[in-house]
Amino acid sequence: MTKYTIRKTDINKALKQADIICKRNGLRLTKLRQDVLSLILKEGGYVKAYDLLDELKKIDPSAKPPTIYRTLDFLLEHGFIHKLQSLNAFIGCSHPQDHKECYFLICNNCQKIEECCSKKINNVIKNTTSKNNFVPDQAVLEIAGTCQQCLN
Ligand SMILES: [Zn+2]
Ligand SMILES: [Zn+2]
Prior knowledge:
Blueprint: E1 2-4, H1 8-24, H2 31-43, H3 49-59, H4 65-77, E2 81-84, E3 89-92, E4 103-107, E5 113-117, H5 119-131, E6 142-145, H6 148-151
One zinc ion binds near residues 93, 95 and 115.
């Protein structure tokens, strides 16, 4: 199992990587997309769409809800951020396109989120769904509990 956390030092790396990925795939990382991505990464944790909109308005006062949702869709589609379904919030990915599936450990106490990847879990999901003749588009796995720090 590989465990990932987004550190402040990873923000610039993640932004640079997003730029490289976009160039490679002929996508446009517009200023708006870059601004929203860096706002999410700066958060260091999860962030709600309306909080993002408030932050974005400080940069661009004309920003409206569709602005933020369209931008989030782009960032989600290309794996730069993830959506936490149980919290209806977004979190940055420090290693975009390294992985397709991942899961999240959510601390109920300090709200810290750990992004984890496990090939084993992915394989179990793949095997189980194919046994049921089902083709998954995406699997959401969010585990709520208590993190190491809060246990101590
Ligand atoms: Zn990720
Ligand atoms: Zn905690």
